[in-house]
Specification:
Layout: E1 2-4, E2 15-17, E3 20-25, E4 28-33, H1 43-60, H2 64-76, E5 79-80, E6 86-87, H3 91-104, E7 124-129, E8 135-140, E9 149-159, E10 171-177, E11 182-185, E12 191-201, E13 211-217, E14 221-229, E15 235-243
Antiparallel strand pairs: 1-4, 2-3, 3-4, 5-6, 7-8, 8-11, 9-10, 9-12, 12-13, 14-15
Helix pairs in contact: 1-3, 2-3
Length: 253
């Protein structure tokens, strides 16, 4: 970071010029090199970005009456953020959100907004663990018709103890049939995990509120496989779980 002795055009210059970012603080005006955030371009992320581009291109081709139906949907619905404060989405945001989900389900793009209806949801989701490397989720309550509904499941973690998980930290796992009431997520490391689940209506792309639950894998373990012979000279495989540091001694049988 370099301090600027002569401010650019004002005492509080800010902004980006080429690969340099200028900004002002109480201690003066500074300049630093532009740093692009690094992230892993995973296959699901690339697919999601491609679906958003497809929806944005389709939005441009809509007629004004078609856009007005989405604007009316945005005006009619009040959502709440993580701080429980009300907010509204634009018609364009509703169009992209609903149709990205439909594209993920291999359905066509809707030109006009659907009638707003919250999909049926279970009462709760329960996340448990074997304490080693497996997570198990189960649902309690009613299920929507699996012919025209799916589960959207996401998982945040592993997080360090005491850190509060958030939906924006979660990775998309899968769209599953809403007939499923439980499942297993294998091969997890030690840490805190939070699962998020909601129902998606195929006909509209609309979704229910999120359900979530948290579980902790407190220590990673590993399986140890030994082979031994019994007094009759028969081979036996011994499989035992060791957690922490294991010290093994050799002895005759």
């Amino acid at each position: 970071m370099v301090r600027v002795r002569r401010p650019l055009h004002s005492q509080a210059a800010s902004g980006k010029i080429s690969q340099t970012v200028h900004y002002a603080t109480r201690r003066g005006t500074f300049a630093r090199r532009l740093v692009s955030p690094a992230f892993e371009q995973t296959s699901p992320r690339a697919l999601h970005q491609a679906d958003i581009q497809t929806c944005n291109a389709a939005w441009i081709a809509l007629t004004q009456p078609e856009r007005d139906t989405w604007a009316a949907l945005g005006d009619a619905i009040t959502l709440r953020n993580s701080l429980d404060l009300p907010y509204k989405r634009s018609g364009h945001n509703w169009y992209v959100a609903c149709n990205v989900r439909r594209l993920r389900l291999e359905l066509t793009i809707l030109a006009t907004a659907p009638v707003y209806d919250i999909p049926i949801m279970p009462y709760a989701i329960d996340l448990t663990t074997d304490g080693i490397d497996q997570l198990y989720w189960s649902l309690d309550g009613p299920h929507p018709n699996p012919i025209n509904h799916s589960w959207d499941i996401r998982l945040a973690g592993p997080l360090s103890p005491g850190r509060r998980p958030a939906l924006n930290q979660a990775r998309w796992l899968a769209y599953l049939s809403s007939s499923m009431s439980n499942g297993t997520i294998p091969d997890r490391q030690a840490g805190s995990y939070t699962i998020f689940l909601r129902s998606i209506a195929h006909i509209s792309g609309l979704v229910s509120p999120w359900l979530h639950d948290t579980a902790i894998i407190d220590a990673a373990g590993f399986w140890l496989r030994l082979q031994a012979k019994d007094p009759n000279n028969n081979d036996h495989d011994l499989r035992a779980l060791w957690r922490g540091t294991a010290v093994i001694s050799r002895r005759s049988i």
